[in-house]
């Protein structure tokens, strides 16, 4: 069973996770990472452009500046939640996407990669998972990304929907598949597991927020 | 926003076992956090000159934890805990809140930052609504 994050004397933050919990978090993170890459047609080239933009080499920065800005509109509803419209004005939203989405994709993928890396290095079985403050910030954002996708698959649209989904599960009913926007109805088959994952991710995030200082 | 998980237990929900009874958290680290308050964006009006200032709006969503929204507003904008809390409650109860304002460039980077934290933010110009 997972144990909450606690601060350590060396400034790091540690929690204890079971092997199965670590495995499921990494698996969900990889699936979400793949989903984003596929849906937005992310290539290694487009990620390299961002790295070049932050490079110390002025020539690399210049090249990045002239690289083409491509920003595919998200198709998957969960990816749309991760990369929402920045304005009700379509032209403004499109421009924002063109200049900002590539960076945002890179940030979210880096967050997920950092989450996986810090778990992977602990090896198998129940272990402590220890994070630097920098890694903790990656975790906070990555946990948000994962919760957003899982919530979408569970059909969470409004405040209180998750509690309803969980209650329906607890009383052994099927989630009504006629719910608005519920076009991935096949996902409800694994609803019990998804609910447990969502609760674990939420609990971990809350636990981490409690030990982190905002400044 | 979700209140789910606002009372973390020392032992988390397990995918494998039945939920454990609640335990009092062993380390209460959130109290007495140092606060660095900063002006809440009014000063940015000046840098926008005579043009209508732009505003960063954060919208309510059913996923983000209340504590996370407060944390992000404190962390990114440098707002005090009290101010971040007021904004979070406005987002939660009114569906949206203006969290910063200023030049278009400033608001663009604020919106981008909010998106990087997974909050749903939009930009608008004063007088649009």
Automatic annotation (TrEMBL), chain A:
Superkingdom of origin: Bacteria
Pfam families reported in the protein's UniProt record: DUF2017
InterPro entries registered for this protein in UniProt: AosR
Name by which UniProt lists this protein: Uncharacterized protein
UniProtKB/TrEMBL annotation, chain B:
Keyword list, A-Z: Hydrolase, Protease
InterPro entries documented for this protein: ClpS, ClpS_core, Ribosomal_bL12_C/ClpS-like
GO biological process: protein catabolic process; proteolysis
Biased composition (Basic and acidic residues): 33-49
Keyword Nucleus appears in the UniProt entry: no
UniProt similarity note: Belongs to the ClpS family.
Subunit structure as annotated in this protein's UniProt entry: Binds to the N-terminal domain of the chaperone ClpA.
Role summary: Involved in the modulation of the specificity of the ClpAP-mediated ATP-dependent protein degradation.
Protein name in the entry: ATP-dependent Clp protease adapter protein ClpS
Organism: Brachybacterium phenoliresistens
Origin organism lineage: Bacteria, Bacillati, Actinomycetota, Actinomycetes, Micrococcales
């Amino acid at each position: 069973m997972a144990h909450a994050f606690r601060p350590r004397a060396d400034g790091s933050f540690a929690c204890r996770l079971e092997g199965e919990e670590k495995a499921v978090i990494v698996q969900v993170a990889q699936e979400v990472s793949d989903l984003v890459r596929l849906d937005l047609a992310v290539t290694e080239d487009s990620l390299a452009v961002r790295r070049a933009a932050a490079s110390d080499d002025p020539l690399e920065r210049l090249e990045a500046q002239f690289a083409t800005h491509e920003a595919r509109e998200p198709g998957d509803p969960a990816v749309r939640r991760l990369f929402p419209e920045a304005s009700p004005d379509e032209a403004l939203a499109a421009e924002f996407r063109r200049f900002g989405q590539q960076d945002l994709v890179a940030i979210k993928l880096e967050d997920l990669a950092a989450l996986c890396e810090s778990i992977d290095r602990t090896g198998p079985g129940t272990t402590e998972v220890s994070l630097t403050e920098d890694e903790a910030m990656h975790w906070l954002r990555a946990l948000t990304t994962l919760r957003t996708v899982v919530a979408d698959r569970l059909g969470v649209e409004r405040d209180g929907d998750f509690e309803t989904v969980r209650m329906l599960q607890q009383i052994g009913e099927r989630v009504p598949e006629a719910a608005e926007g519920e076009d991935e109805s096949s996902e409800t088959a694994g609803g019990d597991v998804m609910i447990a994952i969502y609760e674990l991710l939420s609990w971990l995030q809350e636990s981490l927020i409690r030990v982190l200082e905002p400044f | 926003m979700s209140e789910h998980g606002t009372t973390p237990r020392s032992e988390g929900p397990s995918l494998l076992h039945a939920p454990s009874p609640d335990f009092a958290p062993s380390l209460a680290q959130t109290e007495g956090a140092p606060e660095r308050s900063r002006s809440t964006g009014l000063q940015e009006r000046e840098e926008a000159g005579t043009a209508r200032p732009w505003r960063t709006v954060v919208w309510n969503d059913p996923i983000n934890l209340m504590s996370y929204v407060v944390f992000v507003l404190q962390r990114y904008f440098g707002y005090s805990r009290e101010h971040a809390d007021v904004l979070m409650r406005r987002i939660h109860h009114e569906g949206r809140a203006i969290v910063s304002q200023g030049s278009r460039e400033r608001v663009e980077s604020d919106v981008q930052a909010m998106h990087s934290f997974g909050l749903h933010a939009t930009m608008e110009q004063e007088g649009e609504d």
